[in-house]
Amino acid sequence: MAAAERGFFDRFAPPPSGGRRSSVLLLFGPAEGGGEDVVLTERAHTLRTQPGDISFPGGKREPHDASNAAAALRETQEEVGIDPATIDVVAELPDIYLSPRRFVVTPVLAWWREPGHVDDIDPGEVHRAVRAPLADLLDPAARFTVTHPSGYVGPGFEFDGLFVWGFTAGLLSAVLDFGGLTIPWDRGVERPLPDRYRPGGPRDALTQTATEGRA
Question: What is the Cα Rg of the chain in Å?
Answer without folding.
Answer: 16
